[in-house]
Q: What sequence folds into this?
């Protein structure tokens, strides 16, 4: 028996074993993907859930070294969607049977912003008969804000830790208090304690990162007992400081390969969580997201941001589908999911089984 097979059957996911699994090639690599596929089928089935993605605004108070919408990027035209544009996108998703939405934005926590989001949540539910599952991805927020948004009808929250290693995190962010690792970690824990279905994630193939960091990321997800994960390859954006990094970097294809392996290993380790096939995977490979579905992902986020704004939300270069209307996006995705052997969970929230078990609830 190969060492990979032995680790998978003992389910001993120690740091050393994870580092080993992140590095194997050939037959042993295939054994990982086969195990992930088996566990996916057994635990969550072949249903893929759509989360309509609304990129509400690119106005951001943060200055992360890797991100195209960072505050110091003066070349970017800043926008926020009107109330009507958001509600229309939500109604579109509802009519198409998407079941749930993600509202994502550059990060800010001022009163105008937090009140605006509360009003949007209330209005979205009013116009969709309260049927939509709503995920927020709006950065670090206070308990008061998180509870208010929950009260207004948000169900889930995604806050990527970006890099669970403090030392790596600090290399990717300015040293200011606003970018403190401890604050981000506290914010993530707060999301969970406020009762949200909680998601986090990391970028893969970053400068200074090696497989020991990625092994620690997987252990971090398990330790935090998260319900959902969104992970994807890091892709340079020319208008950011990190793009000027001249040290060794993995080629893009290898970053994708490693991202797929992370998806497979997380599916194997945490079995019943929701895992997203992220857009950055598609930026590297036209069928990157389908590969992620095969590797163990079960969530896809079709973009519903009105096309006129999409240029403004370029987190990284070559972001795909920036000129594709929501309708085209949907039929394209349907074909792709069927090709990857999946069916679509229309009209369902697609609540992670992990959350339902953890909180002993019935879900929809
Ligand atoms: N403001 C929100 C949402 C941020 S944008 C928040 O703070 O959570 C969503 C995600 O895009 C980020 O969490 C980050 O992981 C990813 N991202 C940003 N820049 C990227 C890059 N250059 N390559 C790949 N992913 C990137």
A:
């Amino acid at each position: 028996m190969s060492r990979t097979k032995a680790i998978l059957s003992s389910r001993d996911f120690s740091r050393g074993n994870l580092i080993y699994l992140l590095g194997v090639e050939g037959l042993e690599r295939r054994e990982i993907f086969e195990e992930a596929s088996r566990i996916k089928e057994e635990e969550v089935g072949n249903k893929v859930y759509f989360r309509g993605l609304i990129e509400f605004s690119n106005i951001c108070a943060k200055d992360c070294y890797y991100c195209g919408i960072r505050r110091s990027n003066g070349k970017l035209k800043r926008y926020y969607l009107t109330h009507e544009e958001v509600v229309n996108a939500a109604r579109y998703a509802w009519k198409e049977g998407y079941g749930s939405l993600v509202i994502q934005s550059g990060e800010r926590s001022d009163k105008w912003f937090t009140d605006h989001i509360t009003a949007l949540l209330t209005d979205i539910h009013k116009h969709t008969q309260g049927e939509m599952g709503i995920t927020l991805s709006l950065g670090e927020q206070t308990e008061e804000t998180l509870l208010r948004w929950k009260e207004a009808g948000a169900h889930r929250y995604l806050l990527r830790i970006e890099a669970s290693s403090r030392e790596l995190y600090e290399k990717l962010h300015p040293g200011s208090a606003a970018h403190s690792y401890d604050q981000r970690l506290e914010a993530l824990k707060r999301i969970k304690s406020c009762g949200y279905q909680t998601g986090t994630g990391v970028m893969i193939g970053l400068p200074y990162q090696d497989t020991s960091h990625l092994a620690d990321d997987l252990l971090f997800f398990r330790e935090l007992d998260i319900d959902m994960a969104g992970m994807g390859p890091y892709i340079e954006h020319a208008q950011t400081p990190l793009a000027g990094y001249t040290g060794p970097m993995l080629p893009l294809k290898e970053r994708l390969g490693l991202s797929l392996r992370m998806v497979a290993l997380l599916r194997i380790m945490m079995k019943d969580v929701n895992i997203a096939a992220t857009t950055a995977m598609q930026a590297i490979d036209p069928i990157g997201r389908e590969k992620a579905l095969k590797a163990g992902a079960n969530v896809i986020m079709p973009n519903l941001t009105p096309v006129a704004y999409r240029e403004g939300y370029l987190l990284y270069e070559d972001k795909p589908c920036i000129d594709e209307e929501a309708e085209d996006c949907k039929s394209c995705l349907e074909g792709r999911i069927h090709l990857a052997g999946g069916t679509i969970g229309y009209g369902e929230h697609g609540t992670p089984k992990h959350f339902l078990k953890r909180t002993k609830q019935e879900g929809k």
